[in-house]
């Protein structure tokens, strides 16, 4: 069946200047990425802060234009001019409801805003729609007249979900939707998202730095490192022991890092590299416990697997890149 949402060979390059007199340099936030989502599916997108996952979300939401490549919805290429119509079909839920909800607006105004922006219905039907959606996300009607500051973090995230779903979208881009919440509230919100997906046959792209959270919801997972999808697999396949060394490291990090702080460096030996100066060869080689000498010079190519693909020399038997001299370096 045709994917409902697809990225084909999408790249996004920014030009950044370091310091006042620094030369402008290209930053490849996304480097030739292809993903596709079937209707009703949940694709988890996992990676550390700075890997490009939020840029990818912005491209899908039309907040950024790709430098190269195509965004397709139902097989059709989407251009900048289609974004307004697309907003009815693709809606976001962001990480931090504190910053994404206008503190000066009542909850009723916040939730009904998309309907007013897109001139859907009149004030009567909009009012009715807000009441209905409050029920659906498990909030009492009385919150309509209150303000975000009067609500708990979990309630605010329910408001953000209500605001996204009032447009009856088909696709929801969830960018770290539970990272700002307490653990007990996290699972409530994840369960709510799961129920809503089943009830309305929604398709999710679920972005998180936390593989445990993704495992909860996703059917497939894409692992991102410095702008590349280094592994894509079914959730079951991912917990197999034979995956990409980076995925293995993510799986082993028992400590869940703070939002945006990345993997605890006890596992990987060093900090996430600067995307302006990505390491040569395999971008992961300075942190990889399995690295071989050629990993430092030869970029790995995606190798197809039964469940997706993996981008690592260890799997590239055809090229004979799967064996070699271990790379010796300090600290790993
Ligand atoms: Fe590690 Fe080499 Fe595979 Fe990169 S290509 S993940 S450095 S083994
Ligand atoms: Mg982010």
UniProtKB/TrEMBL annotation:
PROSITE patterns: ABC_TRANSPORTER_1, ABC_TRANSPORTER_2. It is found in: Cell inner membrane. The keyword Transport applies. SMART domains: AAA. It is a peripheral membrane protein. It comes from the Bacteria. GO terms for biological process: peptide transport; transmembrane transport. Keywords: ATP-binding, Nucleotide-binding, Transport. PANTHER family: D,D-DIPEPTIDE TRANSPORT ATP-BINDING PROTEIN DDPF-RELATED, TRANSPORT ATP-BINDING PROTEIN. Belongs to the ABC transporter superfamily. This is ABC transporter ATP-binding protein. It comes from Neptunicoccus cionae.
């Amino acid at each position: 069946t045709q994917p409902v949402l697809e990225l084909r060979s999408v790249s996004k390059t920014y030009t950044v200047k370091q310091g006042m007199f620094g030369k402008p340099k290209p930053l490849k936030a996304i480097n030739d990425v292809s993903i596709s989502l079937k209707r009703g599916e949940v694709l988890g997108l996992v990676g550390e802060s700075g890997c490009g996952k939020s840029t990818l979300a912005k491209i899908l939401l039309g907040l950024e234009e790709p430098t190269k490549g195509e965004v397709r919805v139902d097989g059709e290429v989407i251009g900048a001019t289609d974004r307004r119509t697309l907003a009815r079909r693709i809606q976001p839920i962001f990480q931090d409801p504190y910053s994404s909800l206008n503190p000066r607006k009542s909850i009723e105004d916040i939730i009904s805003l998309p309907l007013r922006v897109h001139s859907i219905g009149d004030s009567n039907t909009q009012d009715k729609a807000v009441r209905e959606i409050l029920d659906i996300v498990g909030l009492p009607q009385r919150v309509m007249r209150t303000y975000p500051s009067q609500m708990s973090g979990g309630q605010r995230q329910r408001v953000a979900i209500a605001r996204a779903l009032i447009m009856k979208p088909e696709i929801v881009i969830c960018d770290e939707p539970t990272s700002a919440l307490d653990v007990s509230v996290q699972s409530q919100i994840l369960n709510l998202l799961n129920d809503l997906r089943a009830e309305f046959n929604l398709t999710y792209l679920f972005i998180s730095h936390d593989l445990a959270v993704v495992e909860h919801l996703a059917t497939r997972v894409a692992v991102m490192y410095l702008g590349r999808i280094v592994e894509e697999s079914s959730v079951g396949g991912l917990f197999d022991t034979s995956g990409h060394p980076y995925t293995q490291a993510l799986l082993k990090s028992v400590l869940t890092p703070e939002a945006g702080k990345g993997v605890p460096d006890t596992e990987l030996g060093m900090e996430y590299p600067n995307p302006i100066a990505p390491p040569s060869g395999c971008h992961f080689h300075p942190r990889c416990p399995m690295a071989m000498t050629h990993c430092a010079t030869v970029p790995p190519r995606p190798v197809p697997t039964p469940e997706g693909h993996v981008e690592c020399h260890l799997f590239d038997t055809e090229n004979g890149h799967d064996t070699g001299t271990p790379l010796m370096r300090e600290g790993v």
